[in-house]
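User: quick one, sequence for these tokens?
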């Protein structure tokens, strides 16, 4: 195992997001699609993040164009501090927000790419 590997954990918010996706796809009579999301998560996304934790784009590197976006960016900087690096991983129709620490990687949120923002309130213990 390479020294840059990180143990991946799910936050409560990430689990809530998965449940929202499942309910949405169930209501749309697309239950099989949720199975594909989970399959991709465990077969591709998590192994990629374990092996290459910095693979995603730096979430804080972009300068938001709106006041709301700037406030979110500033809040993310305060919440993550210097111990965590916030990154985005794009897979199929979903964007995953995750945090990379020295020995762990936390999956914070998963959203369909058409949902453009992350609510960071309460994601950090």
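Assistant:
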């Amino acid at each position: 195992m390479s020294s840059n590997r990180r143990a991946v954990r799910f936050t409560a918010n990430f689990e809530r997001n998965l449940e929202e996706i499942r309910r949405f796809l169930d209501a749309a009579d697309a239950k099989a699609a949720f199975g594909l999301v989970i399959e991709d998560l465990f077969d591709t996304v998590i192994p990629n993040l374990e092996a290459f934790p910095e693979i995603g784009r730096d979430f804080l590197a972009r300068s938001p164009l709106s006041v709301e976006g700037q406030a979110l960016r500033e809040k993310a900087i305060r919440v993550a501090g210097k111990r965590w690096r916030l990154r985005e991983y794009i897979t199929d129709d979903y964007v995953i927000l995750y945090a990379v620490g020295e020995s762990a990687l936390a999956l914070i949120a998963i959203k369909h790419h058409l949902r453009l923002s992350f609510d960071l309130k309460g994601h950090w213990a």
